[in-house]
Amino acid sequence: MAPTLPNAGALAGCKVIDLSRVLGGPYCTQILADHGADVLKIEPPGGDETRGWGPPFLGDTASYFIGVNRNKEGMTLDLSQPAGQELLRHLLADADVLVENFKPGTLEKWGLGFDTLSQAFPKLIHCRVSGFGADGPLGGLPGYDACAQAMCGLMSVNGEADGEATRVGLPVVDMVTGLNAAVAILLALNERTRSGLGQFLDITLYDCALSLLHPHAPNYFYSGKVPKRSGNAHPNIAPYETLPTASGPIFLAVGNNRQFAQLAQVLEAPALAADARYAHNADRLQNRQALRDELSALLAGQNAAELADRLLRAGVPAAAVQTVDQALAHPHTKHRGMVLQHGDYQGVGSPIKLSRTPATLRKLPPALAPTNPNN
């Protein structure tokens, strides 16, 4: 991200009221805030529960909260009380976007649902992040990342073939829901330039989890076979998996015949490329285990990082398997500006790079503030 600049960013002048907590909503609004939106995070009197999701902590605030709440102003508000509801309406008078993840029906009960707010604020874009939406067989029920992973098939295809279904090791459903919410807001802002009207954006963890089922869903649609776990091996491509080396695992992602020929050349194994069993991807899939055995033998004396570099420079997708600290310390991570540091604050930078209006770090995550948004 670019150095701190006042009033910079593609969304400068866009006012966002953020009532969301935990991850999906806050991740969405941090994307908007990084790119210049004026985001006011409104928390209940006890604060966003993730403030306590530690250790680790910075002061009395958990790293979990710090990771998705930069570039926002903060205040607390009890929306269950008439005074809190009235103040929210006052704040919405000049707002462009409202983001919230209350259980469907909660804001409606307080007279703050879209039908009511849109009459008072016809230009307001109201984005709701929820588990399942307001209606349907599961409508109104609470949703959680890991439960969505289990329910929507993600866990069923994640893990070793002979092991248990496994949760993806990061909250991928929450985060892709936040991304989709941000995309929806930008779409609605663009449409509003034509119609002059806001609209309701219904973004659910359930829908977003199902949207991640590529290529497993199309494989099922067109084969009728239920996808199974295959560890790190790809269901449609070979070799596309981790393999052992002398220094640790390497991931090979060989997507076409040219890359396979280059792999054989770098490994000084011309017989591999000439073997009819491996001539085309379908052949390599059919003979996956034999290919894995041959590659494992060829890799046994290799250094994963050095080999991955040689392969990449030869046009073969490959990577040594790095730990989080190694990834964050990588020279290319620094080059891309993907680690931010300001005093005690450290964070992952914005991956969205714009040439004229880059993302900026303007504000550190807010402390738990009283009702005055200027504090």
TrEMBL record:
**Which Pfam families does this one have?**
CoA_transf_3 (PF02515)
Task: Tell me the enzyme class.
Answer: transferase
The keyword Transferase is assigned to this record: yes
Supply the alphabetized keyword list. Transferase
- Reply yes or no: does the keyword Transferase apply: yes
Q: Mind telling me which InterPro entries this protein's record contains?
A: CoA-transferase_III_domain, CoA-Trfase_fam_III, CoA-Trfase_III_dom3_sf, CoA-Trfase_III_dom_1_sf
The Gene Ontology terms for molecular function here are:
CoA-transferase activity
Instruction: Cite the EC number.
Output: 2.8.3.19
PANTHER family, from UniProt?
A: SUCCINATE--HYDROXYMETHYLGLUTARATE COA-TRANSFERASE
Q: Please identify the protein, giving its name as recorded.
A: Acetyl-CoA:oxalate CoA-transferase
